Amino acid sequence: MFLINCPFCGEREQSEFKAGGEAHIVRPKQPTELSDDEWAEYLFMRKNIKGVQLERWNHIHGCRKWFNIVRDTTNDEIKAVYKMGEKPPI
Amino acid sequence: MKKKLRVKRSKHIDETYKISFKFNGKLYHGFKGDTLASALLANDIHLVGRSFKYHRPRGIMTAGSEEPNAIVQLHNNSPRTEPNVRATEVEIYEGLEASSQNCWPSVNFDFGGINNLLSPLLPAGFYYKTFMWPASFWEKYEYFIRKSAGLGKSPTKPDPDIYEHRYIHCDVLVIGAGISGIISAKTAAKNGFKTLLVDEKPYLGGSTIYQNSEYFKINNQNSGSWLEKEINEIKKIKNLEIKTRTSVAAYHGYNYLLARENLTDHLQIERRKNKTRHKLLKIRAKKVITATGSIERPLVFDNNDRPGILLSSAIKKYADLFGVACGEKNILFTNNDSAYETAISLIQKGINIEAIVDNREEVSSKLIYEVEKNNVKIYKGHTITNTHGYKRIKKISIMQLSKDGHNVVGSKIHLSCDCLGISGGWTPAVHLFTQSGGKLKFRDEDQVFIPNIYPSDQISVGACNGDLTLDTILVNVPKSLKDFLDIKKNVYENFEVLSSHNNSKRNIWLLPSDKILGKTKSFVDYQNDATAKDIKLALREGFKSIEHVKRYTTTGMGTDQGKLGNMHALGIISETSEAKMGELGTTTFRPPYTPLTFGTIVGRNVGEYFDVYRKTPIHEWHEKNNAKFENVGQWKRAWYYPKNKEDMFQAVQRESKAARESAGILDASTLGKIDIQGTDASEFLNRVYTNAWSKLEIGKCRYGLMLNEDGMVYDDGVTTRLGENHYLMTTTTGGAANVLGKLEDYLQTEWPELDVYLTSVTDHFATISVCGPNSKKIISEIFPSLDLSDKNFPHMSFKKTKIGKIHCRIMRISFTGEQSYEINVQANFGKSVWEKCIEVGKNYNITPYGTETMHLLRAEKGFIIVGQDTDATMTPIDLQMDWIVSKKKYDFIGKRSLYRSDTIREDRKQLVGLLTDNPNEILEEGAQIVADINKSPIEMLGHVTSSYFSPNLKKSIALGVVKGGKNMLGQRLIIPMENKKINVTVTDPVFLDKENNRLNA
Q: What pLDDT is attached to residue B125?
C-alpha cells in the first residue's frame, strides 16, 4: 500500500484515497460541436502507461480534495504530487 | 526393541516437564520445548503423511517452516481444527491432538497408495489431458476429482478464538533473529533507531544458537555461546522490541509488511480462553533489514522421498536443539561441507553414523578430517542411485559418479540405514525480498540467486544475501549496516572468527542413476509429487517459460510454495533447455510466506462487526413493530411489517392496498440529502441534471435525472429550492455517497469557477413520507395552522413549519402516485414525529409500509428505480423519459452522448411494461424475454427488471427492458422458464392513473 503525500493533509495511507484515473483530461467546453470520434476520444480513450503516468487521486476519507500525482506504474513510486490546475512538475 | 533416541541433555528441552499428546489417536510423550516433529522423531515416528498425487508415504523432512511433507490436521472435528499445519512448527502442549492428512483409512494403510502403482499412467498434466473430453462429461469427473483433491479438512463450526490487527510504525524492522538479525537489531537500536526484531520461531538465535563446535568460534568463544550473550544483552535495550513466533507473511511496496504474531497456539486449549490467538501486525517501517537466512537444498535422486530421509541440517538441529536422534544408523549424502557439521554434532552426541556419501571427488577440510578421524567411512565421488524401504528407509544403493557427473560407473554398493540426511547446499531465503519487488541476480560459483536491486529502503544481510558462512557474515553484515544505517562507528568491529568450512560444492541438479529417467521417481516438489521426469516431459511438450512449467507440473504450487525444490526445477530446466539459470529467472513468490489462518486476516471484523451498518432515527420503532429489514447499501431499511403470521406477499398486498385506499407511512430517512448553496447553485444544477433549473421558483420541488458523461442514467431524485441560492438535493439511498463524490469532482476539477458549496446532510434529517387519499387530513391535524389547500401548497412544493418548537420542512412530492407529504425534521426528533403521525393517523388506518410496498406502488405508476430498472446501459431515452431531457440547454453532463451513433440505435433495450396473459402469474425478476422460441440459438431480447402482483389493479404487473421495446406496444413476447413458457404482452410502463388524478384527489 502506498503512502500518498496529500498536498493538503500530508502523508497518509493509500486506503484513505480513491484513484480517479488519468489526469489532465479536460472536459470539452463545447461538447455539442464535437464529432462522435472526438467525443469518444474524450470519453473512452486512456493511455494506461507502463511507466511514469499522471494520475488523479482524491483524499476521499480525508479532506476530500482532488489532486494529481506522478506515479511510476512499474514500481508504484510516486515522483511528485501537485494540485489541480497546476502543471506537472516533472 | 525400543530405540533410545533421546540423547544428551539440550538446553532447549526441559526433561522434567513431560507432555502427553495424541498422534493419529495414539498417546505419546514429549518434553517442554519439543515441536510435534521432534517429539514424533523421539518416538521413532517418521511416517506422518501421504503425498498429494501418488499417496506415497512421507516423513518429516525439515525442522522449520519450509516443511513440505509433515503437514498435519490439528484437533480434527473440533471447532479449532486446522489443516496443513507444519509438524515442524507446532510446539507441543498437554492435550495436543494431531492426525495425518490425505490418507484413508489410515496413514499406514492408505487406499490411495494405488496411485503410486498407477503412476506411469499419471504423468504431468494428467488431469488436463484426461478430463478434457467429452466436455459434457466434466460434471461427472468433477465430483471425483474434487473429492480426491485438497489437503486436510477445513473447520465446519464457528472459530471460538479471538484475532486482532495492530499497526506498528518503526524506524527499522529486522526480519529474522539469527546471527545476522541479532547483529543488525543491536546495531540499529544502539544507534538510536526505534527497532522491531521479529522471528517466526519461539526462540532467538537461528541456527547459530545451537552451534556448539570448536570449529566455529567468534572472539575465541563457541559461536553459540557468543550469540547467547549478545541475545541477553539486546533484550535489555529499550528502543528494541522483540517478537518471537512472529512470521512475516507479506512484504509490500513502501515498506509495508504484514506479520502474524502467534500468541496462544503453544498453550493448552484450556489456557487460551479470552486470549487473542493471532495478531496481524501491519508494519510500516522506514527501513527494513531482511535477515531471513537460508534453506538447505535437498538432492534429487531416485526415490529421494522416503520417510527417514531428512535434510542434513534438520538432523543436526534435532540432535543439537532437541536432543533427538533421527535414527540409529545414519547416513549423510552431500555435495558440500555442511553435512560434516551435522556429522560432528552427531559424533559429539554419540549418535551413530554409518557413512557419508559425498559426490565431490577430492576435497579436504578440517571438518572432513575430523569426521574421518572418528572412523566414519566417506564415499567420495559417489552418488545415491536408489533407496529402499516403503514406510521407512532401510537401504541405499550408491555408485561412483563419472568425471562429468552425468553418469554412474562401476559397481553398486548397498548400505543399510534407518535415516538419511541429504545436503545439496544452501538457498538464500529471498522470498520476502522478491515479494517487495526486488530483482535477483544469479551467482554462478555456488548456483544461488541473491538480491540485486532493492525497490525500497531495505537491505538483505547474512545468508539470505548469499553470505552462507560464519566468516563472511561477520565481515559483511556490519559493513553493510554501516552504509545502510548511515552510522559513523559500528557496534561490531574486528571480530576474530574461526570458520572451518570449505566452500567447494559439486552442484548436480539431477543426479544420475543406473536406471533410465523414465523409470525413476526423483522428486523435485515433494508436496505436489512433481518429479524430474515430469519437468522434462513438460519441456518436451513445448513448455518453455518457467511460469508455465510450474503450472503444468504443479511444481512449487503446494502450501510450502516449493521452498525446497524450486531451485532444482529451475536447474533441471536450465540443463535440459541449455538456458542460463540467471536468464530463466524464478517464479514469483507470493504472500503469505507461510499460510495464514482466515481468522488472522479478518481479525475483529466478524459477526456484527463484519461491516458497519446504518440505522435511521426511527429504526427502534420499526424493530418494535415487527419490521423485517432489508440491506440497502449499508442501511438497514424496514422491508415490510408482517402482521398475524403474514408472509411477505400477504403483508405487502395489505400495505399497498392501505396506502392507496387510505394512508400509508414510510421511513424515507435513508435517501441521500445534499445541501447545495452558493451564487452559482442554479447554474450548477443545470449542468448536472438533464432538465432545466434556472426557472424553478423558491419553495418548489423538481424531479431530476443525473447522467454519466456516457449518457447513461446515474441517479435520480427530487431537489427543492429553499432560497435564491439554496437547494436541497435528494439522491437514491445507495447512490448518496457516490453522487456527492461525483459532484465534488466536477466542482473541484472541471468547474472550479462556480461558487457552489456542497454538504451531505443525509444523517441530519429524518424523512417521514405520509401518502394516500387521507394523507392531507392527517397532515392538517398534525399541523393545524398550515394551509394545505392545493392552491397554497400544491404538488411539488415545499413549506417550512413547526410542531411545537420542532422545525419541519414539508415537501408535497410523491413516489407512489398518491397525494403525499414528506416531513423532514432534525434527526433526533424523527422518532417522536413519526409516532405522532402514527397516533394521528390511527383514525385513517395509517399503515406503515416498507421498501417492498414502496417498490410495488411506484411500479404501478411506472416510476423507475435506478439500479433496478437501469444498469448503467440505459439512457433516459431508453427509459422513455424523453420529457425530462432538456432540448434547450446547451450542455449538461452526458448530453453529447445522447446522440452518439450507439445511443440513437432503434434496437437498444428500452423500458416497457409487461402484462401476463394469466393475471395471476407473477414473472420472476431477471427472467429472460424472447420473441421466437423455435429459433436456435434463441435470441434474447431483454429481461424483466421489476415484477409484482398489484392488489390495486388485481393483476400481475412487470417492467422490463426489451430491444426496440418502444415500438412493440401490444406485441406478444415469451418468457421461457425452466418448466414452462409465459406469454406476455408489451404495454406502456404506467399501469395506474396515467392522468395523475390521484395526486390532487
A: 66
